[in-house]
Amino acid sequence: MRKPLIILLAWLALMPALSLAQQPKQEKSEKQEIPLKYGADRLGKRQDPAMVKFRDNRLGAFIHWGLYAIPGGEWDGKVYPGAAEWLKSWAKVPSDEWMKLMSQWNPTKFDATAWAKMFKDMGARYVKITTKHHEGFCLWPSKYSKYTVAQTPYKKDLLGEMVKAFNKEGIDVDFYFSVMDWSHPDYRYDIKTPEDSIAFSRFLEFTDNQLKELATRYPTVKDFWFDGTWDASIKENGWWTAHVEKMLKELVPGVTINSRLRADDYGKRHFDSNGHLMGDYESGYERRLPDPVQDLKVTQWDWEACMTLPENQWGYHKDWSLSYVKTPIEVIDRIVHAVSMGGNMVVNFGPQADGDFRPEEKAMAKAIGQWMHRYGQAVYACDYAGLAKQDWGYYTRGKQGEVYMVVFNQPYSRHLIVKTPKGVTVQKATLLTTGEELEVVETTRNEYNVSVPAQDPGEPYVIQLQLHSKEGNKDTYRDALT
Length: 482
Ligand code: JFZ
Hints:
Shape: globular
Mean pLDDT: 93
Helix content: 25-40%
Bound molecules: 4-nitrophenyl 6-deoxy-alpha-L-galactopyranoside
Low-confidence stretches: 1-28, 476-482
Number of helices: 12
CATH superfamily of the largest domain: Glycosidases
Number of strands: 17
Strand content: 15-25%
Strand order of the largest sheet: 7-6-5-4-1-9-8
Number of domains: 2
Radius of gyration: 25 Å
Structural class: alpha/beta
Order of helices and strands: HHEEEHHHEHEHEHHEEHEHEEEEEEEEH
CATH topology of the largest domain: TIM Barrel
Largest sheet: 7 strands, parallel
């Protein structure tokens, strides 16, 4: 009975040595990189002021607004449960017929100042706007397309109005841009013939022109978020995705670009054939988040997740009863979850065709704003804290090294477990809103019970921790992989 146990223990004791012995071999194989012309331009995170601002913003809003807001998911008397902005595709509507919706585009209730105020009150530090979604309709008067807001009864430059009003409130504006364009005769899903190749190169030139137009008409744009880049035609033209990133960075100093734009020499997307992130931040987390225990690798690069309120509706859909709609606490949970793993979160809004927001979205923006107003200190400019995830919620870490516990699950035991890396002790715990000092009991080395507040806050709340590192090195606990 005893022998197998001893063998097991000896084996366990040897494991670290074994894994260490294997390390040089692994490193060597990692260094054998494929030469790439259109791979990652850089290794590691950008640290310039524009990127730091992008990262520190942490909470953003997405606006999906286009012709699809008019039918709101319904075509010829049939309601399609799929994403409303894809209705043209679900109902197989030809582009020229779809574009007839332009004659009805007249958002009389649109008020850029009121929109800016709503997002400001929500606590969004930036807004991503669909300048052009897959349908091809442009919210700005592009001189390269017939399908723009200028050719509608509304006439005025909607994008320009938003940029101006949002910037006035101190909100950064990012441009969503779909490369795939269902309205353009030269768009190709695949390149099968020499004619396809000629048409598609015209299409890429058209796209370059539109992007240059956006970058020069709206020079305060902070970021381009590319979408509709998954087709074979684009994957086979990885050079073009690298060229676009370079072109925009020359036109707009400091501009940031999402990874979804890029494809490398071999058509590999987001991460190049050597596993390095292309673009400035990863944008693949969509309507899902990393696993908070397993996926700590994401803390190595910048990333931004985006989410819908119903299951999968980005544009306005008239019937939200077709899927589950998230509650404010569920949305706030996802915002904090993202920040706790070093990411940003963008919450989507799909305005109505009349230029107003549905009541559910207004209520959501308000609820997020009320919470952010009290607890935003644990979100803005915060990052991964380097402490082992516990069941009560998420840790974040501020710029001064202060650690926040954002408590989503109030425990019956009335204490919250905190585990620290070797050499790090908990000195003090205070409730962020009132400054109430909470009792801290060391239960075991590097393990503590922090008492919950005397009065249950009745909502997710934040405790600020003061930690002390014995080595005097503020960063020790950051390095402790959990
Ligand atoms: C795209 C669009 O098709 C959709 O309409 C919306 O604009 C959304 C933000 O982006 O949809 C995607 C794109 C990529 C993934 C999933 C949905 N993805 O990488 O998992």
